[in-house]
Amino acid sequence: MKSNCRLLYKSNNTHLQTSLPVYFYGLPDGNIYLIYARFYEINFNKSGLEFVFAVLENYYYDFETEKVVALKSMDKNLSSFRKEVESKEPQLRIVKSYRNIKSFVEAQRFLGKKADEMVNILL
């Protein structure tokens, strides 16, 4: 079965407030989703890890042609997209953060299920 969630890029060097990797995924709805983890404080000297799902505001993803498109300019190739998201803080909209997800693999599976649901709604 073909995946409806395409990994575009994994970065260890973004301007987001996390030292952990950031994953960029293209979905059939045209949005580019980010998944990243960040620490939060539970109480004094105790922290937890939450996974944040966000949508990149400046770009969209053409799922059919597999191209990243900047909203203010021409088509971008993936290498120039990578340089741009690492060189400045990306404009994004946080969709939701989850504290019950335990790993990036689990977060990717969750996003994959959401992508499958989107495709089923569109059909």
- What's the main sheet like? 5 strands, antiparallel
Widest β-sheet, arrangement of strands: 1-2-3-4-8
Q: Strand content of the residues, in percent?
A: 35-45%
Structural class label: alpha+beta
Structure explained in plain terms:
- The structure is a single chain.
- This protein is α+β, with helices and mostly antiparallel strands and 123 residues long.
- The chain has one domain.
- Helix content is 24%, strand content 41%.
- It has two helices and eight strands, in the order E-E-E-E-E-E-E-H-E-H.
- The strands form two sheets. The chain has a five-stranded antiparallel sheet with strand order 1-2-3-4-8, with helices on both faces. It has a three-stranded antiparallel sheet with strand order 5-6-7.
- It starts with 5 loop residues before the first strand and ends with a helix.
- 20% of the residues are buried.
- The model has no long low-confidence stretch (mean pLDDT 81).
